[in-house]
Amino acid sequence: MKYEPKHLAAMYDCLRQLPPFDKWNLPSSEWVVFELPHRKDVMGEFLESTDATKPHKIKISAAVHDHTFNVVQTLAHEMLHLVQTIQKTSTPAQHNQDFRKRAKLVCRLHGWDHKFFTGG
């Protein structure tokens, strides 16, 4: 399936309404730029905006995603990085203890494979 940024925005807004995302005060999709680069070296990427007047970016690779199920999980993964930025719990080690704790909760609630979700 060929995805567009508007599809990612809709998935993001849906996830924002579901536990545990609904408790994390994530910005609406209007404050996030969604891109679908054709990269084979990464599944997804979160880019923090250093300017409070500009939105953050979430990129989901169109080259490695063929199924909605995987797109949603990768998007949720990048949303955890966004949560960490907002709550100031991110560190140079991207998948720190806070990330792993949140990932475990998300995977348990949504029935997702923790190894796939965390990339290892």
Key terms:
single chain; 120 residues; alpha+beta; 3-stranded mixed β-sheet; 4 helices; 3 strands
Strand order, sheet with most strands: 1-3-2
Number of domains: 1
Distance between the termini: 25 Å
SS-based structural class?
alpha+beta
The topology string of helices and strands comes to HEEEHHH
Write up this protein.
This protein is of the alpha+beta class. It has one domain (about 5-120). It is built from four helices and three strands; from the N terminus they run αβββααα. The chain has helices at about 5-15, 70-85, 95-110, 115-120, and strands spanning about 30-35, 45, 55-60. Strands 1-3-2 form a three-stranded mixed β-sheet. Strand 2 and strand 3 (about 55-60) form a beta hairpin. Helix 1 packs across helix 2 (about 70-85). The longest helix has 20 residues, at about 70-85. It is globular.
Topology record:
Blueprint: H1 5-16, E1 32-35, E2 44-47, E3 56-60, H2 68-87, H3 97-110, H4 114-118
Parallel strand pairs: 1-3
Antiparallel strand pairs: 2-3
Summarize the structure.
By secondary structure, the chain is an alpha+beta fold. 42% of the residues lie in helices and 11% in strands.
